[in-house]
Design brief:
Order of helices and strands: HHHHHHHHHHHHEEEHEEHEEEE
Distance between the termini: 136 Å
Largest sheet: 8 strands, antiparallel, barrel
Structural class: alpha+beta
Strand content: 15-25%
Helix content: 40-55%
Length: 447
């Protein structure tokens, strides 16, 4: 075939044959553009083949969900059956049928191996918030049902103190406290009230640590009510005043008010008195640091015990050392005076003596040499002191002012000579200071 010459007819036929490849390219290009538009088409115009796939997936998901629900229901039924078997085992064990109880326990464990723990978790007490919500709902229902009675009670409550209101709330609820969050161990609210009161007696202890009892009352409403128990405060009053305690009526409203307002001593610390005076210096030609006057400073310490024992120490040492030497009833420091006291109204009387020191026995030669020497009799001294209990800077019973100070000296001949000291400004009052180490431990409960 000649493409460069020939007749016109031949040329026309050749042009038709040459245009066919270009038309195929344009058709392919149009096909590609249409295919790209179909790829970017919206979900509303998706093909039916694509729309069928989510429906199939939804059907599969629903089947899986139905199977899971069936399995859960089967597990719940099995667990319920195991719980019933385990409870039957408990009933048989309590009635003494141990063999039958073992059979029920075995069947329950075969169904659910940890049925005992599941049963325990299901019987655990609810959270505090849930219990409080239930109680609040009950209170609302009671108020709606008994409006008239509640009006009368409100008028009575206005005349009562906070202790009475909280006591009625605790009696209504049946619990003196609730756990704030779920616990794996036993909460203190599970204890009977009698045990908790006995714990409070250990808190007060034989040292009458009333401050710790007041700190316990700040925990919650139930602890507040328990810390105001009349029996605990009555025992504390009896321990302070003994046979002179009497009754709180009609002067006071309760045993606690009597303990707080009636003059008494404080036992969780020491009464400290600081004494200073000026002494003349000794002039010497060899003393390069001569001072014509010296300021002398020393302290007196008083520690009282509830059973009537008292310790007194006069020293220039540091307060920390002196306070620690008065911690025990039988101090090792021989310079501590030991005695007893008696409380009468707002006055306290003390009788103190020095401790007996064991002197080393001298040898025979010293005895023989000193046989003819005169024996010096210094006498045995007994200190009689009387104080007045006062308040200091809004702190009740925190100051002891001197009323009387007499020293009785008894000699071996039987003669006893009293020496009454004048108190005019020479003996400053004692001020109370709390000592934490005195109440860190509790040896005996309040009795």
């Amino acid at each position: 075939m000649n493409y460069f010459g020939g007749s016109d007819d031949d040329a026309g036929g050749d042009e038709d044959q040459e245009s066919s490849p270009f038309q195929n390219v344009e058709a392919l290009k149009c096909f590609r553009e249409q295919w790209q538009r179909e790829l970017k088409i919206s979900p509303k115009h998706t093909p039916k083949a694509l729309t069928k796939k989510p429906q199939v997936l939804d059907g599969i998901a629903s089947d899986v969900k139905n199977r899971e629900d069936r399995l859960k229901s089967e597990e719940i039924s099995v667990e319920a059956k195991a719980k019933n078997l385990f409870l039957q085992g408990i009933e048989n064990e309590q009635s003494g049928k141990l063999y039958e109880a073992i059979q029920f326990y075995r069947r329950a464990v075969q169904l659910v191996p940890d049925i005992e723990f599941r049963l325990y978790e299901s019987t655990k007490p609810k959270f505090r918030s849930e219990k409080m919500d239930i109680m609040e709902k009950k209170d609302v229902e009671e108020r709606e049902n008994d409006d008239h009675e509640n009006d009368v009670e409100d008028s009575v409550d206005n005349d009562c103190d906070i202790l009475g209101k909280l006591s009625r709330i605790i009696e209504k609820n049946g619990y003196f406290c609730f756990p704030e969050c779920e616990q794996s161990t036993t909460h203190i609210s599970a204890l009977p009230m009698e045990i908790f009161f006995y714990i409070l007696r250990w808190v007060v202890s034989s040292e009458l640590d009333i401050r710790s009892l007041e700190m316990v009352s700040r925990v919650c409403q139930g602890f507040y009510v328990c810390a105001r128990d009349a029996e605990i405060w009555r025992m504390a009053c009896v321990r302070v005043w003994g046979v002179n305690c009497g009754r709180y009526e009609p002067k006071y409203l309760s045993w606690r008010e009597m303990y707080m307002q009636r003059p008494r001593l404080r036992y969780n610390g020491c009464y400290i008195s600081k004494t200073t005076y000026i002494r003349h210096g000794e002039n010497s030609f060899q003393d390069q640091f001569y001072k014509p006057w010296h300021l002398v400073e020393y302290f007196r310490y008083l520690r009282f015990f509830p059973e009537g024992k008292v310790l007194m120490l006069t020293s220039t040492d540091d307060a920390q050392y002196c306070v620690s030497s008065l911690k025990n009833r039988n101090p090792r420091n021989t310079s501590v005076l030991i005695g007893h006291y008696r409380l009468r109204d707002n006055c306290v009387s003390l009788i103190l003596k020095r401790q007996e020191t064991k002197t080393n026995t001298t040898n025979f030669s010293n005895r023989r040499r000193k046989r003819n020497e005169p024996i010096h009799d210094s006498g045995e001294q007994t200190f009689h002191v009387e104080f007045e209990i006062q308040n200091y800077r809004k702190r009740p019973n925190s100051q002891l002012s001197w009323l009387c100070y007499i020293i009785y000296t008894k000699y071996k001949s039987g003669e006893e000579i009293p020496t009454k000291l004048s108190l005019g400004g020479r003996y400053p009052p004692f001020r109370f200071n709390r000592v934490k180490s005195y109440t860190q431990e509790s040896e005996f409960p309040l009795q």
